[in-house]
Each structure stands twice: as C-alpha cells, then as structure tokens.
Write a structure and sequence with these properties.
Number of strands: 14
Radius of gyration: 20 Å
Strand order of the largest sheet: 4-3-6-7
Mean pLDDT: 88
Distance between the termini: 47 Å
Order of helices and strands: EEEEEEEEEEEEEE
Structural class: mainly beta
Low-confidence stretches: none
Strand content: over 45%
Amino acid sequence: MKTEIKSGSFVHVVATINKTAGDGKIMYVNPSVSTVASDAATDDEVELVAYDANGKEVYRNPVVVRRSSAEPDRPNDVGLIQADLPRLAGMKSVSLQLKGKEISRYEAGAAPPKPAAGAFGLELAGAAAASRRPLKIDQLAGLEPVAGVTYSVQVRPDNKSTWDTIAVSRPTPEVDVDRNQFAGAKRAEVRVLRTTGFDEEIIAEDTVDLK
C-alpha cells in the first residue's frame, strides 16, 4: 500500500462500523491541515456524507474500513474508519451511511461567545500528585459542555519550538498538566482551541510556570 502526506484544509473523521450488526458510530470530527493519501481500497457500501446547514448534500464518498486481524474462532466484525474529507464552506454535519442508510451522524454545535482575556495558572495539588497539576483557566471557569463543541489543549515549553497536544476532543478544557512531560522547561505557553468539528479557533492562551 502506497501512502503520501498532503497538506490542505480537511475535516478528520474517526468512526467505527459493524456491517454484520448494521451499526456504527462517529467518534471524532476535527479540522486538519494534512491528510495521508493512500491507494487502499474503499468499501463502496460504507460512505461519509456531509451536509450544510440547510440539509443540502455537499460531499459524498466511500471510505476505507480497516479491521484488525481476527482469530478463526473469534471473527472481528468491527471496522475502523479514519477519513479526511475536504473542508468545504458551510459544512455543518457528517453522516455515516451503510448501503445508503444513515447509522450515525455528527452535528456541529453552536459555540458560545469567545471569553474575555484572563490569566492561566497551574492550580496547586497535594504532595501525592506533585508532578501533575490541574490547569486552572479563569476565563473558562464553569464552562458547560455543548453538544457538537469540543476542546483541545496544546503546550509549548520554553525549551521547544513545537506545540504538544495534551488533550483533544474534550467536552470541556479541563486537563491535568504533567510537568515531568516537559523535562528541563521552566515555563510553557498554553493555548485552548475550540472546535465545532468544521471550524476551530484559539479561545484562550497564556504562559504558565512549570516549577
């Protein structure tokens, strides 16, 4: 199987499907700036279909369904789907379909207003959890989960030039920061990204002390 990494604007969809039982579930939908193109054969009975806010179909394509090796007496009926759809203007939902019938759907949620500027801080914990600290974000305190809206948290320590994602697709941006993960760093930039699956924005960012 040949693969190739391509850059662009995509929507990454992760789903599971059981063709024998006729069910499945879309697990995650997130924006992406790259995709791994391959020549793996798609399953024409399994499609991902995208719609706009008016219910108009804007995309449809069969997907690759991957299964792990199964023992002869324990067949593995559940397949994994990891597909990158082209990110099209107006996308609001993705449907997983088996033989033309919808078995799961993801709907983009209505994101709350972007919070006002505030301060981050690593909240102190007990001695038993000295290396881990829950990330306290003043401007996001009390944030309630909203269907179709998720959060990711990224950290860039002062001894690295790249961002590390420490949480993805969370219903709220609550996360523990393990200071041992950033050996040698004294401080780190932290940012919280909010996504509806199709659109993404940074809603909070600051620098925290890792001492």
